[in-house]
Design goal:
Blueprint: E1 9-12, H1 36-39, H2 63-72, H3 79-93, E2 98-99, H4 107-113, E3 115-116, H5 118-131, E4 135-150, E5 153-166, E6 170-174, E7 187-190, H6 192-209, H7 213-226, H8 231-243, H9 247-261, H10 264-276, H11 280-294, H12 298-310, H13 314-327, H14 332-344, H15 348-361, H16 365-382
Parallel strand pairs: 2-3
Antiparallel strand pairs: 1-5, 4-5, 4-7, 5-6
Helix pairs in contact: 3-5, 4-5, 6-7, 7-8, 8-9, 9-10, 10-11, 12-13, 13-14, 14-15, 15-16
Length: 383
């Protein structure tokens, strides 16, 4: 399984999201005077009485779900056996839940739709496990940095799974992508409210991707109300206000994210905002603070390689693209452009290896066949 299989609760930037590192905090502008309440003022989106978020219980269990448990999980089974049986119900014997990376669902929705991302899986497992009498809770996991592209934005993926307390055996982690999970990863227990907030954050990103700003705002406001200490929720709120044409609230939300946790994507977005506003000194200070993050983002590094390729500097393109591949090995576009760069340099053998890696990383049959055909043609040239 690829790192993309990790449960997703995401943070969004206008262009690029950056991974954390140690940098000096830029100065807070004197003009930034909005309170949290003003950032979350409903009038910013002209909400009517009909614009309300319906109540959502991400862990609700209904009679159909109870019947499934009764059919597959004996009440007198040991706790360890119950964990195994519930996982079997979800992944094999009963539901056969299919992975869908950008589909965040409640436990009930995942039960009926038979698909969802790893956050959906965790909601379903926690709901069924608690119904079966298990002591289970959500946990946040510090996994290797992972990014995805979605429209004109880059998403930085974070991870959540479940842990079950077992007598005499301590705790057991339960993860949709257990083959990717490493017990050495730092883990911390999180509350149900935080897990529910992550669900609403994901739904906000979904609606924002659909250019539906009101439901995006309602979900993001709910996420912040449930857990205001998550800096990336405020980063996403800033992006939402920016797209709604409200730079003042966008600035205030991003500054709130920085105040909470020196949020790197908020720093980057503020640098762009100040540049667009002609506030050059602030723009430079925030851009300098963001620069150390950029080189850790594989998509940013890929774009540098792409620019070098377009201007015909294939040696520089290879340098950037090799770095991008090191940062994220499973992005077939990185390998593709690296192979093309090697072709221009006359290194057909290395180009072949890059196209082979692109084929292995490609998710669609069309892309895989495209790379396979290119390899066959190049092999003829080599021989």
């Amino acid at each position: 399984m690829k790192p993309a299989m990790y449960a997703r609760f995401v943070q969004l930037a206008l262009v690029i999201v950056f991974v954390s590192a140690c940098v000096a905090r830029p100065p807070i502008p004197e003009s930034a005077g909005l309170t949290r309440e003003e950032i979350l003022d409903d009038t910013a989106f002209a909400l009517s009485e009909n614009d309300q978020l319906p109540p959502v219980d991400v862990l609700a269990v209904n009679d159909d779900m109870r019947v499934l448990l009764d059919d597959h999980v004996p009440h007198n089974a040991s706790r360890q056996r119950k964990v195994e049986l519930i996982l079997g119900v979800i992944l094999r014997d009963g539901l056969q839940l299919n992975y869908h990376s950008f589909k965040t669902l409640t436990a009930e929705q995942a039960f009926y739709e038979g698909e969802g991302n790893c956050l959906s899986f965790t909601n379903l497992f926690v709901a069924l496990a608690r119904e079966a009498g298990l002591d289970v809770e959500f946990q946040e996991v510090d996994v290797p940095a992972s990014w995805d592209r979605r429209g004109d934005s880059h998403l930085f993926n974070r991870h959540i799974n479940a842990r079950v307390r077992l007598p005499f055996k301590g705790e057991q982690a339960v993860d949709f992508a257990m083959s990717e999970f490493d017990v050495e990863y730092t883990r911390r227990r999180i509350s149900d409210d935080y897990a529910k907030a992550q669900y609403h954050n994901n739904m906000a990103i979904y609606w924002l991707d659909q250019k539906q700003l009101k439901p995006a705002y309602l979900n993001l406001r709910e996420a912040i109300n449930l857990y205001p200490r998550a800096a990336y929720f405020w980063t996403n709120m800033g992006t939402l206000h920016r797209r709604a044409g409200d730079p003042m609230r966008a600035e205030a939300a991003w500054l709130e994210a920085i105040e909470i946790a020196d949020e790197p994507s908020a720093i980057s977005n503020l640098a762009r905002l100040y540049q667009q506003q002609g506030r050059q000194q602030l723009a430079k200070q925030y851009a300098d603070a963001a620069e150390s993050y950029r080189r850790k983002n594989p998509y940013y590094v890929y774009e540098l390689g792409e620019k070098a390729y377009q201007r015909g500097d294939y040696h520089e393109a290879v340098s950037w693209l090799k770095r991008a591949v090191r940062l994220r090995e499973d992005e077939h576009e990185f390998h593709r452009l690296l192979g093309l760069s090697y072709l221009h340099l006359g290194d057909i053998a290395t180009a072949l290896r890059s196209f082979d890696s692109a084929e292995q990383s490609a998710e669609s049959d069309v892309d895989r066949e495209h790379y396979n055909q290119k390899q066959r043609l190049l092999a003829q040239v080599v021989h």
